[in-house]
């Protein structure tokens, strides 16, 4: 590509630090860059206002629209879910930076480990084939399962989906760092690798996929430290454990060691897991970090055997909430739909939320801005309230009940600006 005949800068992330080579413009000092991270120019962008315009007429809409002239500011109520993956490749430096500029006061790194037992930011240790370009690189040969194209019968009917499986533990940290992130997606009907990886959902975008820098946990924690935000690393269950002598206890302990090494105190850290045993481990071995740790809850780990979880029916709940509190669990993070219910056409707090609140759990929830457009009900994240969800603006109705009635302390979002706007308007 021929560059125009003017001064230009090449900007690249190297170990999350901005290194700038300019032909005519002096490089910013490290202090200047640190200040940019810690005090970014926060912007709502246009999306919160689109959501406001799309809301049903009423008191809530008028209250939220009255805040349109406010100055955006950072808030811990706004938790970045893997950065800002509605438009940026998840768990990349660029995604975290976007979330920082949208006012997220808490940043998340889901934790997995590499072949050489280094911790990295990935939603799963088995998603490299859907969240990175690994299948398009020589490292594809190291994947646990090579790409297999889809198969069709003589009539063109799909009889076997395309597949691949690439683990973080298939490659070293150095190899991991050569990859580039992408939107999490795969085409099950693909006949080629290119068709398989080019499958971004229509409601997301590849507009910002040209630069998508993968990060180790250490790099991410240092970036968050420079931002001056809290961190919420999630320990993900590994596909293979123990792994070449590396045990599950090693893995759990290494997460806390990384936090301490990066200078993230218990008050600045919210370690999280869907595995109750992880929380119990931290209660026993790292009690200070356990006080702020969060037990993530969804149907798979919260429904009684043979039952479908019903937030209105305690007979379907796997866990005795009082018992959880006695075990040292202080905070819960149920999926949004577990905390609300449809009562005669009105969105209200669920019985599960009421009991958790009465027992004294700190509550956060996940995830808004993750669903496809809400005109058709919103999918899994709106389970149980789909009949009263029919426009994108309904998301603010959900957020309002979660804040005003349930009393959540924070909400994960794939586009933090939307939650930041609500929180700023409510003075949270």
TrEMBL record:
Keywords: Glycerol metabolism, Hydrolase, Signal
EC number(s) stated in the UniProt entry for this protein: 3.1.4.46
Family: Belongs to the glycerophosphoryl diester phosphodiesterase family.
Name of the protein in question: glycerophosphodiester phosphodiesterase
Record field: catalytic activity: a sn-glycero-3-phosphodiester + H2O = an alcohol + sn-glycerol 3-phosphate + H(+)
Keyword DNA-binding: no
GP-PDE domain sequence ranges: 76-423
Signal sequence segment: 1-23
Top-level enzyme category: hydrolase
Keyword field contains Hydrolase: yes
A Pfam short name: GDPD
PROSITE patterns: GP_PDE, PROKAR_LIPOPROTEIN
């Amino acid at each position: 590509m021929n560059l125009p005949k003017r001064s230009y800068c090449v900007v690249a992330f190297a170990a999350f630090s901005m290194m700038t080579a300019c032909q005519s413009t002096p490089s910013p000092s490290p202090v200047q860059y640190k200040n940019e991270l810690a005090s970014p120019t926060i912007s709502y962008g246009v999306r919160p206002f689109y959501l406001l315009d799309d809301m049903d007429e009423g008191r809530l809409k008028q209250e939220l629209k009255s805040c349109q002239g406010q100055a955006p500011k950072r808030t811990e109520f706004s938790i970045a879910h893997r950065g800002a993956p509605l438009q940026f490749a998840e768990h990349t430096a660029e995604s975290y930076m976007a979330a920082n500029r949208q006012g997220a006061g808490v940043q998340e790194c889901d934790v997995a480990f590499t072949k050489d037992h280094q911790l990295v930011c990935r939603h799963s240790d088995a998603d490299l084939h859907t969240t990175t370009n690994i299948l398009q690189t020589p490292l594809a040969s190291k994947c646990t399962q090579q790409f297999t194209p889809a198969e069709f019968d003589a009539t063109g009917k799909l009889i076997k989906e395309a597949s691949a499986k690439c683990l973080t533990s298939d490659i070293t940290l150095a190899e991991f760092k050569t990859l580039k992130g992408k939107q999490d997606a795969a085409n099950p009907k693909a006949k080629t690798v290119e068709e398989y990886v080019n499958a971004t959902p229509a409601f997301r975008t590849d507009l910002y996929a040209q630069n998508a820098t993968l990060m180790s946990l250490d790099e991410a924690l240092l970036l968050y430290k420079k931002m001056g935000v809290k961190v919420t690393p999630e320990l993900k269950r590994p596909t293979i454990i123990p792994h070449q002598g590396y045990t599950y206890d090693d893995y759990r302990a290494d997460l806390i060691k990384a936090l301490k090494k990066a200078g993230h105190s218990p008050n600045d850290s919210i370690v999280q897991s869907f595995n109750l045993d992880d929380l119990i481990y931290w209660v026993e071995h790292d009690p200070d970090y356990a006080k702020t740790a969060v037990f993530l809850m969804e149907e798979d780990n919260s429904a009684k055997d043979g039952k479908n979880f019903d937030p209105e029916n305690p007979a379907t709940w796997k866990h005795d909430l009082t018992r959880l509190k006695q075990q040292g669990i202080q905070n819960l993070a149920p999926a949004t739909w577990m905390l609300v219910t449809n009562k005669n056409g009105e969105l209200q707090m669920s019985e599960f939320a009421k009991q958790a609140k009465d027992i004294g759990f700190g509550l956060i929830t996940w995830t808004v801005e993750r669903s496809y457009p809400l005109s058709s009900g919103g999918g899994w994240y709106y389970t149980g309230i789909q009949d009263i969800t029919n426009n994108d603006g309904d998301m603010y109705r959900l957020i309002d009940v979660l804040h005003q009635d349930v009393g959540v302390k924070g909400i994960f979002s794939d586009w933090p600006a939307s939650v930041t706007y609500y929180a700023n308007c409510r003075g949270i």
